[in-house]
Design brief:
single chain; alpha+beta; Serine Threonine Protein Phosphatase 5, Tetratricopeptide repeat; six-stranded antiparallel beta sheet; four-stranded antiparallel beta sheet; 42% helix; disordered N terminus
Length: 720
Amino acid sequence: MCVQQVIIRPMKLAFRIYCFLVVASLLSGCGQKKSDEGYVGSRSCIECHKRFYHLWDSSYHGKAMQPYTDNFAVSNLTAHAEAIDIDGVKYQANISAGKGYVTEKGPKGAKKYPIEHVMGGKNVFFFLTPLERGRLQVMPISYRVITKEWYDTTASMVRHFDLEEDEAVHWTDRLLTFNTACFNCHVSQLRKNYDLATDSYKTVWGEPGINCETCHGPCEDHNRVFREAKGKETQPDDLHLLSWKTLSAEQRNDACSGCHAKAASITMAFVPGEKFFDHYDLTCLEDRDFYPDGRDLGENYTLTSWMMSPCVKSGKLDCIHCHTSSGRYRFAKENHNGACLPCHDKRVADIKSHSHHKTDNENSPTCVGCHMPLTTFGNMNRSDHSMRPPSPASSIEFKSPNSCVMCHDKKDDEWAAEKVAEWHPERRWSKRIVDEGKLVRWARAEKWEHFAEMLEYLEAEDSDVIVIASLVRLLAPCPDQRKIPALRTLLKHKSPLVRASTAVTIGGFDVESVRALLPLLDDEYRLVRIRAANALMNYQRNLLPMAVRKRFEEVEKELVESMESQPDQWSSHYNFGNYWGQRGDLLKSIASYETAIKLRSDVIMPYVNASIAVSQTGDGNKAYQYLQKAYELEPKNVAVNMNMGLLMAERGDMIVAEKHLRVAVADCNSMPQAAYNLAVIVGEKNPAEAVELCKKAMEAVPGNQKYQQALMYYMSKLPK
């Protein structure tokens, strides 16, 4: 028997250090046309649209980014009286007349950083300062608008999860670089102009804030045509810009989602009217920034929970029903329940019967108050856009928030659950929320003893798209091969999100899966096509029919373009490393991993995969160096210990190999290979332990002939 090698496929990133801007670093391209041609700026709109211009100019869209000035400071900020200590370095803002700046005083001396730009304003003002190589950096201290307080920017974004605690990143981290992270959701008609060779930017943009042309397209022709028609009896039928009146509800939602989704971009060229899943992938409940039941935990954007909303699923609701094009809420002061009309007119007319609350005082319940409760993370407020009913039972199960105890803050979830049970004894929605949350929680924890329940949900006709996509992604390490037929069926699902997620999980390793994947090369959504092409990279393309191979190569170009779209992201180069490895070009693969490491030296995945690629070239010493660096970063990581164990076994150091494989065996469901290989190492001296290890491997992968043969072999070695 020989020690089995394993190739680590792309896996989900779990930063030990994480802040809200990692989300924005995945966002891109909202409103960015493929060229600058025809853009003339929002001030050109004043001539005919003065009222709308001023509504926009003063809105949070208009002020998403603005230059820092004395007038801004006087109107919006209070003096920063006491410096903030961050890891032994003190930071203090100076906003007196003249150029604003932040002072830094620490062991290395004092330094001033000028404040050049301001982002946000609804909840928080973030400040930007220029650093080397063209970077604009989010500064270490920010300003909370509601409480008028200065605070430590990244410390406010730390997550505290059950499995691990995150640490605040240093303010100079790439995750807080505007050019990399925030950019196109705060300025308009941006050109990043990143140079990989020098790791530098020459970023420019048309206007700060989200301007008129972001949503309506370039206006030069529109302005010209209507100026020419001024004073004439008839006006042009062709507006020469995008009118949102012509868009469907889905198109309107997609247009807003580019900046209001926790998503990964696959192009940098989205314009309103196009399909969201032609340009983005969406983060779902596989991410621990969500409670298992889908409520917000960390910093999230709107689209994921929005897609879980029964109102949105009806196809009758879009973003601008409740919000104006400048982002204002239409029902903030008067007729606050009007947002739910006309669909829920009977309940709005009789709130008392529906809510079981009095409606004769200023604290009377509102539709939004109960169905879209407001929570806070990182000093920023956000409303739950799933619009589902309050579910205290879910809060008891998952510790997620519910609007009942937010309002009745002296009560607890148990009290609220009793009230809901009394008023709504059927509680069908609450049971469903709890049941779905349990499935997600089990899948996150890799409790595959519940696989049958997960499978049943995936096969049900009325299952939620977000939950399906979440489970499919979380099933990637599940060794139960009963998942494969179910996944093949889901490749035909009506949702492009589900089809794309399934293509990633199923891979293209067997003929039947390949046959199921091939039709997705002609899918109407780019996301689905490139995910299918990536899965098919595992299959020998010379076995495909010529016509299919030609189509595969066409979609492969889209896949490559998607990876090229963000050259300043480490993940782009990591993906290229995987791509070139699948193509058999180990030198390009290693070079891509090296670039990923250069851009983000504290992520283990490029090190692990680089070690595998290098070992295939025969350079065991270099492979060890990569793995050693990964081990220093995450000494308990299963993949690192698995590969280190295999490498050390190949080098003949069985003592060290055994040490690393024992760490990997602790997560045998994910790494049954670790149990098998450890059995090979210890089998001759301890066949009883080898038998138990082989049994563990077989429990994770029932029917595996190699594991079964090993089990029989070591059982034969047991004393009679």
